[in-house]
Amino acid sequence: MRAERGRTSAVLMAFALGLAHALSLSIAGLWWLQLMSVGLLALLLTTTVSTQAPKPTGTAFLKPAILGFTFGLGWFVAGVSWLFISMHRYGGLPAPLAATALLIFCAYLALFPAAASALASALCRPGKHRHSKFGLTGYALAFSGAFTLFELLRGWLFTGFPWLAPGYAHVDGPLSAVAPLIGSFGVGAAACLLGALITLTLAAALRGRRLPITPLLVCIAVAAASLLAKQVNWGVTAGSVIRADLIQGNIAQDMKFDPARTRAAMLAYAQALVPGRAQLIVMPETAWTLPWPMTPPEIAARIRSALGDGALAAIGMPLAAADGSPRLTNSVAVIDSSGGAVARYDKVHLVPFGEFIPWGFRWFVNMMNIPLGDFGRGAVDQAMLQLDRHAVAFNICYEDLFGDELARQVRAGANLLINVSNIAWFGDSHAHEQHLQIARMRALELARPMLRATNTGVTAAIDHRGQVIARLPGHEFGTLSVSIAPATGLTPFARWANLPAWLLAIGLLVVGCWLARQADPLECRALQ
């Protein structure tokens, strides 16, 4: 009975730690909470493998998998609960079905921390070696390596969903300095390593044991690397600035595709244009729900007149596919004073269920009333907008989750990144602040400023160091006028994308396993 209560308490604790982990990724500045939650998970996992069994058993590795899964369930249910809003309120899916779909999706995501927890335990047997001078450090290394390895897989498998990756909690923390070197996944690896080492070392000290020197040296090495990286200026800003107006339409999602409301929204955007103030006016994703040629003539004329001084308007809208296929693409059209499109960007990384229908799931999409649900895919390499001798690269909505794809744009010469989004699908939820953290991480990794024009928030300007220099309040109609300096220079992440993070994850796992196997079982029993 006591053992059963202990197992239940461990599962509840893992779930609570997952909730805390989600909170650290939703509120800026809570990087310490991310360290604490993942560190306590590592401590919890060290008690799941029996120290008595001469060989590891399947049951022994099932326990850490269950704890990792429960941690992940708390992490993702709390973190992406806003998906329920899109499916139920705007998609029309009955609440029980929407809640079930959310739980199934979160259970899939939770398989990744479950597999990481099981792998680290299988390779290091932390219950056996946790008190040895090498076992503690070895397990912490293997744990962070396995965690990062499966986070990288989560960001790639089935087109990837790296939302809520641990590194995003650290855009305001000391580990942010290494983002240009190893990217958000590498930051997450360093955070998991520090969290595990600090927690396991403190737990050993509280048990009255002498503090081992090895984990302290590793912590010092990580801190030193962060301090050194902070001294490097990865991006060089241009001498000139680009003047931009970012328009936040605040169009209610349930009214967005109503014909009368569509016309009113287009008119409101057109009236917000101020001639002579900006070189580039940016409107959110699907600000137009119709292709540009279908714009009412009087609205198109108003926009042309506002652009008479040579300014350009970048408008999110569906467009006929550039390759001549019958599909529409989710695009940005750049309009000049003649009313013609001088540039366009077609979204490449489409959202499953929102922008394309995965094989075998059309029945699910048919249950929801979501228009424009099956877009065509843009070409991987697209020409960038040239503005005042600077190259401007667009990305749409959650494309900015994929740092490796934006790195490709920077290698091609992009000096300024612009994200257009419409996450009104998720109501007034924490998705907005999470998305802002993601955009800030991209600016840090690539040393490029990022402008964000969104429908309901967060419309903001971010400099090449990842700092928000201006933003609009959410859920209000408004225009954010900013002057932003484009940047040049390639960070290591821009050159190699996620390759260093993959190598780091594998290296941590290999070195951690080797260290754990150096632990002397006799020493472990003597210390217990």
Features:
alpha/beta, 14% strand, 528 residues, single chain, 6-stranded mixed beta sheet, Nitrilase/N-carbamoyl-D-aminoacid amidohydrolase, disordered C terminus, globular
Percent helix among the residues? Answer: 40-55%
Q: Biggest sheet, open or closed, and with what strands and sense?
A: 6 strands, mixed
Under the CATH scheme, the architecture of the largest domain is 4-Layer Sandwich
The CATH superfamily of the largest domain is known as Carbon-nitrogen hydrolase
Whole-number tally of structural domains:
2
- Give the rounded overall mean pLDDT: 89
Rounded Rg: 25 Å
Strand order in space, largest sheet: 6-5-4-3-2-13
* Beginning-to-end CA distance, first to last residue: 24 Å
Question: What's the shape?
Answer: globular
Q: Beta fraction of the residues?
A: 5-15%
CATH class of the largest domain: Alpha Beta
Show unreliable segments. 50-54, 520-528
What is the CATH topology descriptor of the largest domain? Nitrilase/N-carbamoyl-D-aminoacid amidohydrolase
The number of E-state strands comes to 14
Number of helices: 17
Structural class: alpha/beta
